[in-house]
# Entry
Amino acid sequence: MAKEQVYNATLGKTVELNIVNEEEPNYVNNKKRNKRSARNALLSQSDWALLPDSPLTDEQKNEVIVYRQALRDISSHVEFPDNQLPNKPDFL
# Structure
């Protein structure tokens, strides 16, 4: 909680207000759930790339492995859920 000085026109003077600067827990939980859902969708969309009959080169497959690991690590990031999802390789 923080204190903030604001002008109250009704009273004609500056007053001090207590401001709650915390996000509501449900809001944060929803952001986390949405980020994980987006991550899971991206993982599912890239599953084909690591199948034995995938047309990708070994170099591309290694790039997919790194990308998928970055997706899995998203929730352990310090800024989670406000961090960005990793960039998908162009060939996916």
Observations:
- The longest strand covers residues 2-8.
- The beta strands are 2-8, 13-19.
- The chain has a mean pLDDT of 91.
